[in-house]
Amino acid sequence: MRRTRTIPKYAATLLCTAERATLLHTLNNVLVSALAEGDDRGSVDDFSSAFYQSGSPNHLGDSVPLPLQPFREKTVPRLPKDHHTMFVIDKKSGVVQHMSRFDNSDDAPEPPTITFSKKRQLSVRMDLVSTGFLFCSCEALQVIEFHVNNIYTFLTDSLLAKVEIMQNVFGVVELPVGSVIVEPITSAETYIAANISVCSRRLYPLTRESCFAEEEACYAVSSTSESVYLHSTVEALHKLTGPNVVIGPNTTVAASSSLSGVVCGANVSIGENCTIVSSVIMDGAVIGDDCVVRGSVVGPGVVIRSGVEVVHSVLGEECKVSAVGDGKHFLHNQHMFVKGTKDGEHSGSSSSNSSMRHSHSSDDTEEEEGDDSKNPRKDGTLMVGVECNGTSTRCKWENDFYPTCDLFTNDPIPQDDDDEESEEEEETYQQAIKRIVDTCFNKPDLLKEENYAAMHQQMSSVNVDMHKGRHDLSEAITTLLLQRALDEERSPSQTLELVKQYFTQWFLVYNYVHLDGSSNPNIDAMKAMLESVCFAIGDPTCVLHKFASSLFDHLLKGCNAAAYKERGFCIVSEEALVDFLADTLHKNEVRAAYEDDIGSDSSDEEDRNMLMVALSTQEYIEKIKKNLKS
């Protein structure tokens, strides 16, 4: 009714859903809720029992959530449907701008091209199933036909083609399904699975939002597979088998290659007779002839020579993998490939156990021609991976692929030009601070109080030139210090002691950047900064994840020793007591979990005293906690 009043010549609203059962449950909930407001409650119960049988797993509950959840099931059928209808919907008004019917037949129509624009928000949908419910304006009632079998034919030939309502428009309202699955992404394998799930969610059920594309980007929808999207600049010399294929701009796919469940970036080249399944191919990658890629991520600029098979692997940026000798080069279950050298080329892998290192060569592989002294298999260099031609990934907490749970529920939003400029400015700022930090490590005397004024002036100048604040400076320095501590493999106790040593050396800087209006350290800001940097480390098993709180205690002790010593002898609120107990017990649990690695000697006397205080007052604090809840 609102659309009829606000949109000129609005004819009808088509009700769609990804599951028909959801429609029945939703209608029941809406009607029962409306009738429940009346006086005759008995008729409501009779109506509810007669409308549907309870117990369905897709039941939405006793009430309809508003606004409706923007989630859909991500199940993928093995084969496409016999036919499907594509809706191009204006997201602002809900009006259907274009509608096409695709049939899997020999005389399939040409794929329509949709132009996405930032100014006009469009949504292309193929996962919607028409429920047969059509809500029409009064003028359209005269052309309504009951028991309509083909809703597409009715809409095109009857409703919109009648003279009485010529040039009228109709809209679509979607009812979502009643469940959604959101999984955390914690490894490269789950990242790959996430991308495939994104395909399933976004393409079958098929959705393509305008926020996906750059300004005036054109994508063509394949008429033979309902989940294949090709950028208008793609050279695909065959009918992609699909399902779930996204091909970026300026990408070339040979005629004899087969793709299924694949996301390809821009400027990708795929050769003849290739089979690529359930994989992500990033920008600028080159895949030769007769290659097999399954369940893998191929990073930007990667070159895979002809005859290579890659299975369940992640190839880092600008790696080069080539067949060796007479046979194929099989790369199975490799967690991460990094840059290495092999006869002048980049090649490498880190096996699932990166501590396994090998220095022997493969007996069944012929050596390449050239100087043997340059071959890493002959010169005694410790190598890892298949055929010993890889290098280990030293920084397992640093990952070029940024996983996020938002991939499951939200379509990505492209960067604006301003975002790219801000990234460049941030990188420039990080490099400037890194030069200062490196200088201070080369000349430790600069961190002493008598020489600190010169370094302080230099950091202040960088902040003024780059329009940064004290918080930005603190975060940048902390990140660089933690990266320096994690650069080499050390035991957890050695890493913690090194970080504490760094904080002791740099306490003057932290004392400056976190001063409040009373010339005292802003403890809350300092703690939030340190925890955010520690928790941002990609590896959840990193020791700095667990010991962020104890690192903060050490940092506070260096910045303001007097405040640190007096922090346990002051009047505190009830909430602070509860937080003290929880924080102390958590530290004790973490230290117990890492006791084998860090040793018992690393726990200082103050930590033990705090634990004794917490345990002796635990019963009293628990009573306070109950009183607060009540």
Automatic annotation (TrEMBL):
Q: Where is the composition biased (Acidic residues)?
A: 414-427
Does Magnesium count among this protein's keywords?
Answer: no
> EIF2B subunit epsilon/gamma LbH domain spans which residues?
227-322
Q: Where are the transmembrane segments?
A: none
A GO cellular component term found in this entry reads: eukaryotic translation initiation factor 2B complex
Keyword annotations of the record: Cytoplasm, Initiation factor, Protein biosynthesis, Transferase
Region (Disordered), start-end ranges? 340-383, 408-427
Cite a single Pfam family from the UniProt record.
LbH_EIF2B
- Where is the protein situated, by its record's location annotation? Cytoplasm, Cytosol
Any GO molecular function: transferase activity
Can the keyword Ribonucleoprotein be found in this entry's annotation?
Answer: no
Q: What is its main location?
A: cytoplasm
Q: Extract the SUPFAM superfamilies matched here.
A: Nucleotide-diphospho-sugar transferases (SSF53448), Trimeric LpxA-like enzymes (SSF51161)
Q: Which InterPro entries match?
A: eIF2B_epsilon (IPR051956), LbH_EIF2B3/5 (IPR056764), Nucleotide-diphossugar_trans (IPR029044), Trimer_LpxA-like_sf (IPR011004)
Bias (Low complexity): 347-356
Q: Which Gene3D superfamilies match?
A: Hexapeptide repeat proteins
In the record, the note on similarity to other proteins reads:
Belongs to the eIF-2B gamma/epsilon subunits family.
**Subunit architecture:** Component of the translation initiation factor 2B (eIF2B) complex which is a heterodecamer of two sets of five different subunits: alpha, beta, gamma, delta and epsilon. Subunits alpha, beta and delta comprise a regulatory subcomplex and subunits epsilon and gamma comprise a catalytic subcomplex. Within the complex, the hexameric regulatory complex resides at the center, with the two heterodimeric catalytic subcomplexes bound on opposite sides.
The name under which this protein is listed is: Bacterial transferase hexapeptide (Six repeats), putative
Say which species the protein is native to. Answer: Angomonas deanei
* Top-level taxonomy: Eukaryota, Discoba, Euglenozoa, Kinetoplastea, Metakinetoplastina
